[in-house]
Specification:
The chain is an alpha+beta fold. It has nine helices and 14 strands. It holds the Pfam family Suc_Fer-like.
């Protein structure tokens, strides 16, 4: 009975200690994350010359601007570097006006058939290839290929099999078309408003600001801006990709997120003019080697600085899987045909697994330690106290007998 009473009274405080310790560690981690998110916000620009013309916002309501524009709460809340999976080639298909695109533009006539053809030949295409739709109108069917800087005009549904076979599978000029080379720098801005309102609000404003700054610099024949369909990572809007030659003349596509009109002059003067990356906005790039694995965990800026991928998933793995299954196919030999260029399912899954593993080793470790302490040490302590109590009773009985 002495043992039972002790075991009951000693166990409750230990459980309270475990609970309080777990709460303390959880609160500490939450506080650290809050501080990290705050530290990620860059200082606002003080240059009045780089501010966007207020008239640019005339077509956007104040409510939509606050909820979906450049001042929304989620801006700068996530790490950007590493949010683009490695790939080797990017195709841009011109197709209608971006204001007319359906939510799933990849399911519309030519883009849909192009995607299906790429999917059917996925095991034959030697390099990982992404497909994105860009505004076309008078040039529907034109295909721009990066980093080769090659263009083919007027691709039709009947041309697709031959085009994919010649150009993408065998790496030869298309037998039924005229291959053209082009030069200059190209900026593709996600303005797919029917897919996500953040891109629909931010994209057109960035396109207008880019064209304005390009004109001021006399670069209309050197820098070209196009609206593009969803490229992955709605929450990072404004999203854009810049293809331009570096100091060695190599063409590489660099992805940027959280871009605002104030950032446009810097992108033109620093990135396009001098080949320097804007690190605070950089998401990743085309052409990162995948020899050491899938390459999604980390990337390096051109200056050699190592950066980690974003560890804050936007949506659940199930939601991302459902979204990406509609527009992206992954090949067994490393090739893919994607309308959404950022494969965020694997990123989110890895992040969740990493978080779970760290949680088990960290917070849950305390609970396990206390649990094992209860099972082992409480019983030991109870046995000691029981022994002491037995000795005390025996000694009391001994004294009583001796006195009598």
């Amino acid at each position: 009975m002495i043992y039972a009473r002790f075991n009951f009274s000693f166990k409750a405080p230990l459980m309270r200690i475990a609970h309080l310790s777990r709460c303390f560690f959880t609160s500490s981690i939450s506080f650290a994350r809050t501080q990290l998110n705050v530290s990620l916000k860059p200082l606002p620009s003080v240059s009045s010359s780089s501010m966007a013309d207020p008239s640019n916002f005339s077509t956007v309501s104040a409510e939509d601007e606050a909820k979906y524009g450049f001042t929304r709460e989620e801006m700068y809340s996530s790490n950007l570097a590493g949010t683009v999976n490695p790939y080797d080639r990017h195709l841009f298909l011109r197709h209608r006006s971006y204001t007319d695109w359906a939510s799933r533009v990849e399911e519309d006539s030519l883009p849909k058939l192009f995607s299906s053809t790429l999917k059917s030949r996925k095991n034959d295409i030697p390099v990982k290839t992404l497909l994105t739709v860009i505004e076309g109108e008078q040039s529907d069917g034109d295909v721009l290929i990066f980093p080769e800087m090659i263009k083919y005009k007027g691709l039709t549904e009947g041309d697709l099999d031959g085009f994919v076979e010649d150009v993408l599978v065998n790496g030869k000029p298309w037998a039924s078309g005229v291959q053209e080379t082009f030069t200059g720098s190209y900026v593709f801005v996600c303005a797919h408003g029917n897919r996500d309102k953040r891109c629909g609000v931010c994209g057109p404003i960035l396109i207008e600001k880019l064209n304005e700054e390009i004109a001021l610099r006399g670069l209309k024949d050197q820098v070209f801006v196009n609206a593009c369909s969803h490229i992955g990572g709605h929450k990072y809007a404004g999203n854009l990709i810049i293809f331009s030659p570096d100091s060695k003349g190599k063409i590489t596509g660099h992805w940027y997120g959280y871009v605002t009109p104030e950032d446009v002059p810097e992108l033109l003067d620093k990135h396009i003019a001098n080949g320097k990356i804007i690190e605070r906005l950089w998401r990743g790039q085309m052409g990162v080697s995948t020899e050491s694995g899938d390459g999604t965990g980390e990337q390096k800026l051109p200056n050699g600085t190592e950066v980690k991928k974003n560890e804050k998933p936007e949506e659940s793995t199930v939601q991302k899987t459902r979204e990406n299954l509609g527009g992206c196919c992954q090949g067994a030999n490393g090739s893919s045909c994607c309308m959404t260029a950022s494969s965020e399912v694997s990123e989110t899954k890895k992040t969740e697994e990493t978080t779970e593993a760290h949680g088990k080793k960290g917070l849950c470790g305390l609970t396990s330690w206390v649990g094992s302490w209860e099972q082992r040490d409480v019983l030991t302590a109870a046995a000691v106290v029981g022994a002491v109590a037995t000795v005390a009773v025996a000694y009391s009985y001994y004294r009583k007998v001796r006195l009598n």
